[in-house]
Amino acid sequence: MKAFIIKKLLFIVAISLVATTCLAQQFNLALNYNTATPLGKTFKEYVNNTSFRGIQGSVLYTLNNDFRIGLQASYNDFYQKYGRQVYKTTDGADISAVLSNTLQEIPVLVKAEYTLVKDGWIKPYIGLGAGVNFINFDQFFGEFKSSRFYTKAAFSGDLGVLIPFHKTGEYGVRLSTSYNLSPFDKEGIKNISTWNGQLGIVVPLK
User: Fold this and answer.
1) Is residue 89 assigned to a domain?
2) From residue 41, how far is each of 76, 80, 133 by CA, in Å?
3) Is residue 46 included in any domain, yes or no?
């Protein structure tokens, strides 16, 4: 699991490094703290706890004052521990153990954002994204570990506001909420969908 986390977090860093090599001043880097709440019955049966261990990064190119497009990557880490019970194994045997379910996901999306109101101190925007979700399962029956990895499609829609530190400045604070959809039909789970909240900063890359 640690190797998975390190490898995919490096992908987020790579996005930033690619953008910093560009001389154009229209690139903005956003770094956000991210929370994610599981949605859907089967997903919540596997893990019901909200993930407070998440980050999000994006590099967007400003085409004009209203429209931006680029890449976005997020990381969420879900964990749920269940008390000792008797479980049936795949070979029909019974095992008494504490069950721990974990799931790490990293959706990497092509992202577009549109500013709804460009005048004023607070600038609301909407965003849409589509791409790939890298999903890692680690399940523990006591000390026995089972791991699986999947790659699935991912989609997102979000609504947020940008609050510049100065009214005409490019640096600012972002506050947003988003819905992430990842179609899924493995491990007894249908759709790994989440409702998310983000808080972070925007920095122009010059």
Assistant:
1) no
2) 19, 15, 20
3) yes
List the domain range (segments joined by +) for residue 51: 2-79+108-137+149-205
Q: pTM of this prediction?
A: 0.80
Longest dimension (CA), the chain: 67
Contact 200, 74 (CB under 8 A): no
Each residue's pLDDT, cut to its tens digit, for the chain (206 residues) gives 555 555 555 555 555 544 444 444 588 899 999 999 999 899 998 899 999 999 999 999 988 878 999 999 999 999 988 766 655 555 565 666 677 889 999 999 999 999 998 777 888 999 999 999 999 988 777 666 778 899 999 999 999 999 888 766 678 899 999 999 999 888 888 889 999 999 999 988 86
Q: What is the CATH number of the domain that holds 63?
A: 2.40.160.20
Q: Is residue 100 part of a domain?
A: no
